[in-house]
Amino acid sequence: MTLATPIRPETGLNSLGFAKSPAKTRVVVAMSGGVDSSVVAAHLAEQGYDVIGVTLQLYDHGAALAKKGACCAGQDIHDARRVAERIGFPHYVLDYENKFRESVIDEFADSYLAGATPVPCIRCNERVKFRDLLETARDLDADCMATGHYIQRKMGPNGAELHMATDQNRDQSYFLFSTTQEQLDFLRFPLGHLASKAETREMAARYGLSVADKPDSQDICFVPNGNYAAVIEKLRPGAADPGEIVDMDGNLLGQHRGVIHYTIGQRRGLGIGGLGDPLYVVKLDPDTRRVIVGPREALSTRIVPVAEVNWIGDGAFDGVERQVSVRIRSTRPPREAILRATGPRSAEVELLNPEEGVSPGQACVFYETGSSRVLGGGWIQPRR
Question: Is 124 a catalytic residue?
């Protein structure tokens, strides 16, 4: 199995879409140290492209060295460097720790304190990898920047379009909805059409890469063992102040150990058993330090307010009502919905079938119904 060939005879364009030889096409590859971006770099170098590998140091080396399954720190930087040395292309490590903290980690902590459930991987793509690193690629006179994300860039009648990956189990479109049209014009995703991750690992083994069997990244890179609360307490001392657990009528049911330990839809670990029907977290109120619980039906949501909308579909994002499909969690399939713009960058999404556990701070990603095309998305806001 191989990726695209260097020159396509029918178009005269190389595999990255440029009307020149690979040797005259410079591509910066964002290398996390994992198998995906390593295969992208190795394959493009094999095709004869002028490859430059760049790895971002995003958080403290000392803390990262002891954590397996992270990215952009410690062992991962070492692994990226070894791949570049083996294949024979230049590799640079850029210190983005301050930018990463300011653009991603601080907002992550503040969002949790505000009762939201943030997705820092999206902010990292939006504010660090596809903004700051992309500008660095331009400064290096690159023609484009390639990443190991599982998503597809296809040319449509109106220019470059973003599409879901062929392998739905690996699709990362939920995490890349905020990619702008300008960024999409510059980005390339060579792995998006592969049928499975196994093909990527087979290519890594063929290139003799040391990361061929390296495990995939797990959890959020700066959150050891998935313990969000511990990280937030460290970043924001006093964040885990205890408070009350109440029902939807305000009746006191128990005490909790900090709002940051709870998420919308949570059932287990509430410590309020023996009340008959099971109760779920339906709302978090950080101002009063209250966790509000209710029956499962209270989780059902039909209208979803969305802000910071990024639109990369055809036409202007305006008041026109659109039939779309939306994904409100990365682990859920797209559902049919009606999208109504309520402002230049705000919208109301009406789900044709109500969903449970819609959480403020998560992304709502728009897709063209019956198609793999990504139309953009926005951030879910609290219900009024």
Answer: yes
